[in-house]
Amino acid sequence: MSQTQKSFKVRVKSYHGDVVDLKVPLSEKDVLKLKTGNIVYLSGIIYTARDLAHRKIVDLAKRGELPFSLEGAAIYHCGPIVRKNKGEFEIVSAGPTTSTRMNRYLNEVLSLGVRGIIGKGGMIPEPFKKHSAVYFAFTGGAGSLAAKSIKKVRDVFWLDELGIPEAVWVLEVERFPLLVAIDAHGNSIYKKS
Fewer CB near the last or first residue (10 Å), C or N of the chain? Predict the structure, then answer.
């Protein structure tokens, strides 16, 4: 576990009806309490990852060479717009990308200990039940709203190799507003009744 991850303790701060404040890294106990339709305000460290990053994460994990731990992590399907401001990276916009493209990596990524995936459009629900993880939906087209919850870029991996949208950005977020769209029990708001 990285030094950054250690600074955030797992805890459910409060349950007020359907609204929950959570900190990452997430525990199995925390995600098992969540139900579809819950509004979650997520704080702590999250990782962005799109198609190329997922493939690289899976390949490096198989070789035991992944440079960060994803135990209890939340991955955000996002290719942010980034600029340098006074020598530091700043997220200008961070809207979600369509998650279904990453379905082919889902089982392998969740098996690394990931407890939350953030994106839009949903994913296959069964792996979330199998691995006790949740899928959080964030509204498409609201990239500037997401950027307001991002307090700092903590790190970036594979920027030169993959480019800005595909690199893994390590972001510190505060009260990132999300909706539980697939819970750890396999329930999904995307399933037809």
Answer: C
| 47/121 Cα distance (integer angstroms) | 19
Of 54, 77, 131, 185, the active-site residue reads 54
Q: Which helix (H) or strand (E) holds 92?
A: strand 88-93
Phi–psi pair at 111, nearest 5 degrees: -70, -15
Q: Is 54 a catalytic residue?
A: yes
What does DSSP say about strands 88-93 and 116-119: parallel, antiparallel, or unpaired? unpaired
CB 70 within 8 A of CB 112: yes
Euclidean distance between the first and the last CA atom of the chain, given in angstroms as a whole number? 41
Model confidence over 94-142: pLDDT tens digits?
Answer: 999 999 999 999 999 999 999 999 999 999 999 999 999 999 999 888 8
Residue with tokens 């509204």: 139
